[in-house]
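User: Some background: our group keeps a shared notebook of sequences we're curious about, and every so often someone picks one and asks for a predicted structure to add to the entry. Today it's my turn. The entry only has the sequence so far, pasted here. Could you supply the structure so I can complete it?
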Amino acid sequence: MNCNMCGLGLIPTEEPKGICSKCESNLSPEEIQERKNAQLAHLKNIILSTEMTYPGDYERIEIIASEYVIGLNVFKDLFVSITDSVGGRSATMQKELSKAREYVLNDLKQQAFNISANAVIAIDIKYNELNGKNSQMLFVAATGTAIKT
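Assistant: Of course. Here's the predicted structure to add to the notebook entry:
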């Protein structure tokens, strides 16, 4: 990927901004804020879908993935086991899973933005439990195909 202003190649940390650090240092604070606002608007408009296809013509860019691991501490484990044994819903676990799902979907959007895609289709979210010797973790993973329409 090249800088939008001077055309030189970008290093990975510069790619999300689309501008090299030399050109960015020449921008006024207002111009920097304007660029950030435009990026946020673009991110907000990236479409996420579980559908396998997208209407109309599109170019497949690449498969993207995101992962999030939730470490469960002793207090959460105790609370969850009590709630589960009484048959209720665990608000703590639901909140953590919701946070994890939101994270992986937002990360897919960010990755799509970084490679100039404007949609991610065929999204698949998997939830799994990882148990270690003295630890328990929940793992949330999302994959999808980044496309440009």
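Suggested note for the entry: The beta strands are 47-48, 59-72, 119-131, 136-148. The chain has a mean pLDDT of 84.
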